[in-house]
């Protein structure tokens, strides 16, 4: 990033810092639409590989929806096991961290083990208490994902032609003043 100097060089850092990239997208025309995010991402990668100024491009998900897939039933046993696993990881990390500052021989392994043990125990208790507070209102496990029906690639109008050329997109629309509706049969 270039910062303005006394010699009068351009201030690219300042000009980029004051611009909200999400507000810029609103006025950009659609370059192309893709069925998947991976396809839209590949198009931007292709533009980038050809040294196109990709800061003029945005991928916009259209018609968003949230999908929640139920993967199982929550129970007291699952709450305890889930709490045990999370607590054990936390205790292990805490034990490793404390062992970095401990003095004496053999203390590292005992601190790590005690951290793992106490973390697992507190994790079980915390998992059971958390499940009890739900009051049976959400007795299932799920995973959520936001998906889009399509992904539009928006591009600044000033470089739209260059982007179309790189992606091999031809624009075959008739100008609005020459459009003739089909005759009734």
Commentary on this structure:
The protein has 185 residues and is of the alpha+beta class. Helices cover 46% and strands 21% of the residues. A 3-stranded antiparallel beta sheet has the order 1-3-2. The chain is elongated, with a radius of gyration of 28 Å. The model is unreliable at 1-14 and 173-179 (pLDDT under 50).
Concise account of the structure shown:
The chain has six helices and three strands; from the N terminus they run ααβαβααβα.
In terms of topology, how is this protein built?
Elements: H1 12-17, H2 21-24, E1 30-34, H3 37-49, E2 57-73, H4 76-101, H5 107-134, E3 140-155, H6 160-167
Antiparallel strand pairs: 1-3, 2-3
Helix pairs in contact: 4-5
Number of strand segments: 3
**Strand order across the biggest sheet?**
1-3-2
- Largest β-sheet summary: 3 strands, antiparallel
Beta-strand percentage range? 15-25%
Give the end-to-end Cα distance, rounded to a whole number of Å: 63 Å
Oligomer: single chain
List the secondary-structure elements in sequence, H or E: HHEHEHHEH
pLDDT < 50 stretches: 1-14, 173-179
Main structural class: alpha+beta
Whole-number radius of gyration? 28 Å
What's the rounded overall pLDDT mean? 83
The 3D shape can be described as elongated
Helix content percent band: 40-55%
Structure annotation, total helices: 6
């Amino acid at each position: 990033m270039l910062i303005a100097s006394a010699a009068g060089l351009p201030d690219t850092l300042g000009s980029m810092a004051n611009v909200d990239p999400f507000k810029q997208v609103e006025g950009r025309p659609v370059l192309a639409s893709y069925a998947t995010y991976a396809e839209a991402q590949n198009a931007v990668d292709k533009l980038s590989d050809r040294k196109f100024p990709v800061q003029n491009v945005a991928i916009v998900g259209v018609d968003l929806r949230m999908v929640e897939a139920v993967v199982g039933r929550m129970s007291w046993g699952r709450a305890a096991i889930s709490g045990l696993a999370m607590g054990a990881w936390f205790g292990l990390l805490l034990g490793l961290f404390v062992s970095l500052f401990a003095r004496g021989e053999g203390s590292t392994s005992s601190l790590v083990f005690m951290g793992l043990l106490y973390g697992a125990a507190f994790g079980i208790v915390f998992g059971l208490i958390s499940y009890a507070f739900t009051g049976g209102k959400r007795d299932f496990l799920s995973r959520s994902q936001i998906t889009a029906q399509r992904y539009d690639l928006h591009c600044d109008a000033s470089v739209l032609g260059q982007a179309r050329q790189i992606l091999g997109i031809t624009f075959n629309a008739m100008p609005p003043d020459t459009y003739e509706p089909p005759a009734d049969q």
